[in-house]
Specification:
By secondary structure, the chain is α/β, with parallel strands linked by helices. About 35% of the residues lie in helices and about 20% in strands. It is built from 17 helices and 22 strands. A seven-stranded mixed β-sheet has the order 14-15-16-13-12-18-19, with helices on both faces. Strands 9-8-7-10-11-21 form a six-stranded mixed β-sheet, sandwiched between helices. A three-stranded antiparallel β-sheet has the order 5-6-22. Helix 7 links the parallel strand 7 and strand 8. The protein is globular. The structure holds nicotinamide-adenine-dinucleotide. The site of nicotinamide-adenine-dinucleotide (NAD) has 29 residues, from helix 9 and helix 10.
Length: about 525
């Protein structure tokens, strides 16, 4: 069945005259266990970022289709919540195996729609699959607590699902972020509606197909598409009890406000500005390689990209060597085997990044490596490419410091002491990730305890926690207080009942009513 997926999903004939755009391929919805063509007349064109060739048309899901997705998820919840935990575990075990077997197929879809290199796309799938593998432990994760609180009296907790949940995803990890959401949610007995990014929904649909293969029943997982109208529906629909969001500040603040105003739980992971502190006692070779990889890998389109380097004291002398390493990175289409950096997601993203580079120059920073208009192979000449770029002598008032650039641009600031570096980072509104490179354990410990950032690397550039932990960004990088995946993720998708039970009450005084609080 998996093999027939490419024909059943990818060659669906459009029902509206989208052929005027010279394409026969549209992206289907996944509702009630079926891949269906939207009846919409509003289609969002999706272009391959490396070539700007049209890949597919993504529907703005109609209100009727959205309602069908929510109704079917609500209906499916009635039986799914009663399914045994062992049967849900069995499905997850099969699901992770199918993801493993179809990693290449998912990765190719990611590279075609999102642009990142094939090797990096496989990492996207792997990091998502690890969440599924951890969710396979649902039989232990969902255990409650029990205590004999008095003679013959027990108190115990039961973790129950919420109902229909929804996930709204960004473009930069088309497999990993949907997998942060639906495996844990459905493992806990919820049903889910996923809205992938309208810029690269292909991976989420392959995952939905694999979930169906693994035995996820119809209606338990649904995938809808679109932009603001779909998001508004999710924020307002009465069946939806909780929304997981990952993406930009603007969308996240809006969704948090509208979703919580409607009484829903909302967890929202937002933007970032991640600083890497380089102490002069760090291992130079290792540090420079890690810096180049974490600033420019995935063309800087990672929420944990180390995009801001803070050079303490003499470490500022290392910049020429960093330029040397960054200039050697190969810029090309993500399908090419030796590519280091693929394109940016859209032409608009490319222009925005180029403008932020120019603003740095205009505001007094030194452009020591200019990646604008890089040379790429002829077949990628229309792609959205920006090469590795380094702006030195950046100051906190500059726009290139204040904004999340989300491109292959590393900005460098100089400070005299570790305390200056900590002060700078703690003054930044974001708190997603940070790292210190040092060979001094005492400085590293001082840094980890003084810094107001949720995820800290010590000689580790992109410290995204593995899924037995949770993703713990803080400050302006998060709205809501219950994190994604790990114990916290499960807490988000469940509610707790606490039962206090007394079965033997012969010894209790039966002669009068108990009107006072027990003391
Ligand atoms: P985005 O906010 O543009 O899109 C995310 C989702 O929100 C999409 O599904 C989109 O359809 C929807 N959306 C977009 N604009 C909207 C609006 N005005 N109103 C309602 N919904 C809207 O984000 P993106 O560009 O796809 O992703 C990049 C951003 O995501 C970066 O800021 C990055 O830091 C952030 N991100 C954060 C994390 C994290 O865990 N902190 C992880 C990945 C990405």
């Amino acid at each position: 069945v998996i093999r027939t997926f490419s024909t059943s999903i990818r060659s669906l004939q459009p029902v509206t005259p989208v052929n005027s755009l010279n394409i026969k391929r549209t992206t289907p919805l996944f509702i009630n266990g079926e891949f269906v063509e939207s009846k919409t007349d509003k289609w969002i064109p999706l272009y391959n970022p490396a070539t700007n060739d049209l890949v597919t048309l993504v529907p703005e899901t109609t209100p009727e289709e959205l309602k069908a997705a929510a109704d079917t998820a609500a209906e499916a919840f009635k039986t799914w919540r009663k399914s045994s935990i062992l049967s849900r575990q069995r499905i997850l075990l099969d699901f992770q195996l199918l993801i493993r077997e179809h990693t290449d197929k998912i990765a190719k879809s990611i590279t075609e729609e999102q642009g990142k290199t094939l090797a990096d796309a496989k990492g996207d799938v792997l990091r998502g699959r690890q969440v599924v593998e951890t969710a396979c432990g649902i039989t232990n994760l969902l255990m409650g607590e029990r205590l004999a609180v008095a003679t013959d009296m027990d108190t115990y907790t039961i973790r129950e699902p919420l109902g229909v949940t929804a996930g709204i995803c960004p473009f930069n990890f088309p497999a990993m972020i949907p997998l942060w959401m639906f495996p844990l949610s459905i493992a806990a007995g919820n049903t889910m509606i996923i809205k992938p990014s309208e810029r690269d929904p292909g991976a989420a649909l392959i995952l939905a197909q694999l979930a169906k293969e693994a035995g996820v029943p119809s209606g338990v997982l649904n995938v809808v598409h679109g932009s603001i109208d779909t998001v508004n529906f999710i924020c307002d629909n009465e069946h939806i009890k909780a929304i997981s969001f990952v993406g930009s500040d603007r969308a996240g603040k809006y969704i948090y406000k509208r979703g919580t105003a409607n009484g829903k739980r909302v967890q929202a992971n937002l933007g970032a500005k991640n600083h890497g502190v380089i102490m002069p006692d760090a291992n130079k070779n290792y540090t420079l390689n890690q810096l180049a990889g974490s600033a420019f890998g995935a063309a800087g389109q990672r929420c944990m990209a180390l995009s801001t380097v803070v050079l303490v004291g003499e470490a500022k002398e290392w910049l020429p060597e960093l330029v040397e390493r960054a200039s050697k990175l190969k810029i090309s289409g993500g399908m090419e085997p030796d590519t280091d950096l693929g394109p940016l997601i859209t032409h608009q993203a490319k222009e925005r990044v180029e403008n932020l580079i120019q603003s740095g120059v205009d505001q007094g920073a030194k452009l020591i490596l200019d990646g604008r208009n890089p040379v790429v192979p002829e077949k990628y000449k229309n792609g959205n490419f920006v090469g590795p770029t380094i702006l030195a002598d950046v100051k906190p008032h500059m726009d290139c410091y204040k904004e999340e650039i989300f491109g292959p641009v590393l900005i460098a600031l100089n400070v005299d002491t570790l305390d200056d570096a900590i002060g700078l980072i703690n003054n930044n509104p974001y708190g997603n990730g940070t790292a210190i490179f040092t060979s001094n354990g005492s400085n590293a410990r001082y840094f980890t305890t003084s810094i107001e950032v949720g995820q800290i690397g010590v000689n580790v550039p992109i410290p995204v926690p593995l899924p037995m932990f949770s993703f713990t960004g803080n400050k302006a990088s998060i709205l809501g207080d219950v994190n994604f995946y790990g114990r916290s993720g499960l807490q988000f998708y469940t509610q707790t009942k606490t039962v206090t039970a007394l079965w033997r009450h012969e010894d209790v005084d039966h002669t009068k009513s108990a009107v006072t609080m027990p003391t």
